[in-house]
ABC transporter permease ([Enterobacter] lignolyticus), 290 residues
Amino acid sequence: MSKVDLDSPMTRSNPAALTPQQRAQRRKLHVLLGRAGLFLLIVGGWQLATVLGWLDPFFFGSPKGIVLRLWDWVQHGTAYGSIWLQIWVTLEESLMGFAVGVIGGILFGVLLGEIPYLADVFGPYIKIVNALPRIVLGSIFVMWLGLGMSSKVVLAAVLVFFVVFFNAFQGVRSVDRNLVANARILGASRFDVVLHVVFPSAMTWIIASLHVALGFSIIGAIVGEFLGAQKGLGLVIATAQNTFDANGVFGAMLIIGAIALSAEVLMSLIEKRLLSWQPPSAAESNTPGV
């Protein structure tokens, strides 16, 4: 079977002549071009506005100034040491908080989802704590645990916990009870049912929450460092803010964005591996949507 040329006049005028794989390749190319165009529009427009005087670079910064600030950090470091050290400290706090929050959220979500009595007892208190502003919790943790890593890890873990907990809880409650009844008929114990039926069925809900939770772990670490720290990107941002260094603020934000994007790509790969048993979604099977 001969391959269809993506650039041939026939395929340009008649996209239906393309195979599903070729349509996916064409869409991916269009997405990449759209992203590149949007990036150039924003960055180019920002730089042009500062050059023409429409935006004051002292307050709004400029893409050129941000690149120069990042290069200066790479060469000479920040006021608190190497920029790589600040990145590693924030990354370490985020990953530790993410791990603690995910484990706690899954355990409590499955436990309260399986035992309605515990859900009724703990439910109001969980909702009260979840409603508290995170910056208030961050201040409390700094007072309790000091300016070291512990307060940032705990704050990140709390933010992650609630995201994972509610998804795990809802996932357990959404399990098909016919599957549970069939497992019980076959002689499975309650622990076996949870391990082999409930938890795998709720895995989709749990995995979906990890994307949001990963970003929240970074936010928790940054907010904790902003409130009080000895090292980290949050402290770098706070220092840049206090000295009216707009390029420094945007530079640190750019680093955080790069870390979050890299973590999201890694999480997507892990999700595909863990949920490989599921049938492909409409997007993955190249089925057009609405």
